[in-house]
Each structure stands twice: as structure tokens, then as C-alpha cells.
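Cont'd.
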Amino acid sequence: MSDSTYLLEVKNLCRHFTSGRGKNKLVVKAVDNVSFGVKPAETFGLVGESGCGKTTLGRTIIRLYDPTSGQVFFNGREISGKMTGELRRYLTENIAMIFQDPIESLNPRMTVEEIIGEGLKVRGVKDKAEIRRRVVEMLKKVGLNEEHATRYPHEFSGGQRQRIGIARALIVQPKMIIADEPVSALDVSIQAQVINLLNDLKEEFGLTILFIAHNLSVVKYFSDRIGVMYYGRLVEVARGEDLYAKPLHPYTRALLSAIPEPNPLTARNKKRLDYDPERDHDYSREKPEMVEIEPEHFVYCSPSEAARYREICRSAVKAGD
Amino acid sequence: MIVDRNNLPEDIRDLPESCFEIVGSEDISDEPFKTEAIGFFKDAIYRLRKNKLSVIAFWLITAVIISAIIVPHLTGYSPTAQNLAYRNLPPKIPGLEKLGIADGTRILTNRPKASLSEFPEGSIIQIVREYKASNVDMVDVKVDYYKFVGVPEGEYHWMGTDYLGRDLCTRLFLGARISLLIAFFAVVANIIIGVVYGACAGYYGGRVDMILTHFAEILDGLPYLVVTILFMLLFGSGMFSIVLALTVTGWIGTARLVRAQFYRFKGREYVLAARTLGVRDRALIFRHILPNAIGPVITRAMISIPGAIFSESFLAYIGLGIKPPNPSIGVLLSDGQRVLLQYPYQTVFPAVLISVLMVSFNLFANGLRDALDPTQRGEI
């Protein structure tokens, strides 16, 4: 039931949170009917403002949350069904996660060796020397050294801790990594360091990465394809260059117009767009859906909007000639 | 494409690509740390040792425990052997007796003056008061009570003897041993049950939590004394029934605490990270969450030790203590208060010991709480 060109395929995935009962019942659609695919060895960037459901989406894929409805396929196998021990093993062997907060994501009571080696232990590696050897090897890959293995997390800086988090995810040799805002808690110089490290490791291990972030510049540098999320929905998916060159959905345009520019001369003349779904869309007559406007460029829109977007693309091509 | 030229100032916009390089792409390799690795508990002990009061309290507790172990063997008296001739002897301590305290003397009041000649030789130290009552000459007389009742020279009862002539010092430290054992077993049982119960409720949450919490609440509603008396009826009075009585509702507080701690820690990112690695529930509970949640539990255990000793004393006081002739601090207090006005030392010694234990455990627990509090890390 899944497309074989994709390593990870998400189909109509929903994750709703409810609170209260009866009259007070409140449903928050954190992830609402999201569909996309990630190809092997590709980096898929997921952007959107805070609270739009990016993290929930990542956590639902790796089954930290159970999906409300919809399906997720990994390598052709459905991983969104009933949780069994076997499925848990399949998931943990193939997908690993890097977390946002480098302080929060390392257990303060464990040494670095215990933290990184845990994945191996779970997989039944019993030999202490073997674990030690592989932990040290992994530490060296992320730029730390053997001596650091016996240390506790609080002794490290933020960037070092995030690299420990990366080492923990990579030591189990997963096919795919979900990186949940891995650099947003770091300062800019360290961001570059971590991103470049991820890039190198990606090439070395042939990793597929689902990269969740809200920093558009980082996503642009790092991702092959980018998906834009707004209020639990995926509104636009395109190749990186296409998205930045011809953003179609009004929310994407607003988001791109919000990137600060490092040049005061151009920044002065920049116009900041804003997005109001009530004003920008009229969905009273036509139902919106994901439409492929150009090859590999999907936008969530109604048929009339789709026609308009196609027109924009055509004129952009002409202007380019 | 590394460079977005549109964003660059005009004067450098036309530079070739080769002029740009990515900053931060060089190999990262960090220096080893020069300091020593310090784990959490090592750090906690370091900070505990900075707290003077806690250190004193710790040594006091240690001293009491060591005394409770060895003193009953050193006194040379049996804690249960009765000698009615030697009953209610006042304290007499070698060395101190020359200073006039704990010298084994007592003032006998309302004695006919004529009877003084019948007193054993050398036992009268001083006549405190002389007066007439109904035309009979009466005296209050201070005597060396040990000579008065014929205790051989060189025999000392450091804390005197009780109403059955048993050496109080031996009984007090044996009692302390029994009280501490009861408290220790009760607290260990409470902690084990409470941690497992609270961990299950807190970790699994939802319906499991609801059922477990409500069950604990029902149990908490049982009247404590009634339960205790029922246990006494069922198992007879003794250490086992008392430990059981202290355990039956004692674990509930710990369980609540642990449950709250688990709610606090189970959503932490490092727990989620471990879950994505496929770590099993049991390892998550005991390796990831519990070590982080254990601080308040340890503190609570420390605080509840004097609580348990006190409860035991209370039970003994109202006559539900351990089986005679075995002593416990509570039994001694209960016996002592009957003769509080005549022989106050029989109450004072156990009272002082229990107070020292209470204060020391509380101070130690406070220091421990501060030492285990992660927010105070690095201070002092």
C-alpha cells in the first residue's frame, strides 16, 4: 500500500489531544491529516511556527504518541498499527531521534558512556569492552574523546551535549533519524558546528533525516526538500530551492518574509507579509487538498487557487528565461 | 549553493564562490577535562559534609547506634534479670560520684529519728531536716542508697535500676536497639512498597493510576489504632505486629510522593529518548526515572525513622508495645512515668535518648534534603 520510492511515508496522519469530558471536551488537532514522504538518503526539513505540531508529528512517527488516525509506512511496512514488542524492536532498530534540549535530553544521573551505550545494551550487546569500544569510536566521530566517556552530562557545554545526543542516536546505526530542532537551543556558532557534523555523518552513514526546525536559514542550508506546517496541517511541500524561489502558499510567503536579513541596506526596504487564513482563503465553496502544482511541489489549496498558483509558476519560468 | 547573493551588500556580491568558506566546518575535537569526574551522589555527600549540623547529627546517630549494639554487653547486667532487693536504685557513675552528681544517694523523707540506728553502717550521709510530727521526732535523711540496700562495693548502675531491680542502662540501650530495629524495618518496608506502588501509579498513569490511588485512599481511611489492635490480637504483641502496624498505612505517603515525582519526570526528554531507543518499562522506571526522583524519598525515609520510633513509643505507652520483659524506649518511658515524681531519672534517661534521636534524625534529614536538591547544586 505504500510507494516504494519513499523510505518513510506518512498518509493522512492525525494526532488529536483531548481534554475534559462532555460539554467541556476540548480537542486540539496537533497534527491534522498530514501526508508526505521522505526518500532514502534525503533530508526532509519540516518548518513552521512554534506550536504548529512539528514536534508532535515527529513523536507520532516514532510512536512516542499513538496516532489518532492515518498510517505511517517505513520501508513499506506499516508502523502506525497496534504496538507489539516486535514492532517496537523494528522501530527502534530503524529510526532514532535527536532531541531539542541538550540539557533535558541527557539523564543527569548517568555517565556519557552509559547514555550512549544504552542503545547497544538494549539490543543485547553484553560485552562491556565491546560497548566501551563502540562508544569511544562514536565519541570520536562527534568530536569528543575517550576521556569524556566517564563524565556526567552537567560537565559539558550545550554543543557538546547535543553531540552526545547525536552519538546516542547514531550508535544503533538507524536508517533514519528524526532530528527534533537539534540546534534551536544552541548559540549560532555552535549551531553551525552541529549542523556541519550532522551533514558529515549523514554522508558517512547514508542517513535519511527528518529535520524539524523553525529556523528557516538552517533548514534551507540543510534540507533537500522542505515541508511547511501551519496549525497541524502541511500547507506546502517542495524542493528547497523551489520553495525559496517561488513560495506559493500565502503562509509560506509570510514565513519567508520574516527571515531577518543580515544586510541593513536590503533589510530596510523589505516588506513583511502577514498571513490570515480567514482573509487569504475562501474555502466556503471549494474544499482544499494537497495539489501538485509543479513536479515535486505540493500546495494545500482549492482548485481555483491551484489554477492561480500554476499561473504564477508559469510566469516565473518565463521571467527566468 | 552556499551563498545567497541577494542578501549580500553590493560590493561583495560578485565575488566568486571560492572566496566563501563555511565557518565551523573544520573538524571538531574537544580537549579532555582536567578536573575529576564527580557523580551526583559524590557531589551530594560533598555538600552534606559542608553542613556542620548534619555532620554532628550524623555522628550522634552513629554513636547511638554503636552504643545500642555494644553497651548492653558491656554493663555486665542482664536486661531482664530481676532483683527486688535492688529496686529503684539511683544512678551511680564511677568518677562522677566524687563530684556529687550520680553518686547513688537519695533523700529519704519522713523517717522516725529512732529508726536511724537500724540503718546499715555508713549509709547515712547527712540529716537534711529535723522536725516533730504527732510528738514523734522525724527526719529527712540523705543516705548512700547503695549501702542502704546492701549493694556490694564497686557495683555501679550508671542509670540506676527500675522497679524490678533491672539495670536501666542495659535496658535503655537494648530498648534503643529494638526501637531502632523496629523503625528500620518499618521504614524499609514502607519505602519498598511505596516506591513500587507509587512508581506503577505514576509511570502508567490513566486508569491504573486511578485504581491504585483510590485503593490507597481507602486504606488510608482505616483507623490506625484499630488496625494495630487487630494485628496485636492476630499475631500477638511483638516486633512483627508493630512493624506490620506501622507499615499498613505508613507506605501511602511514600507512594504519593513517588507518584508525584514520576509524573514530574516521566515526560522528560531523556526518558523519551530512552523510549525511542527501545528501553523497557522496568529499566525506564528503575534506571532513568527513579534515580532522579529518589532525593525526596531518601529525605522522607530519614524523617520517618524518628516518626516510627515515636509511634512505637506511643503504642508502648498505651500498653500496646512489645512483649515484656523486652524493653523498648517506649516501654521504658511508660514504666518511668508511673514513678516520675519519686524516681524522675527513670523517665529522664529514655526521654533524653529519644529526643537526641529525633533531633539528630531531623537535622540529618534536612541536610540530606539540601544535599540532594538539584537546584542547590554547586552552591555553598
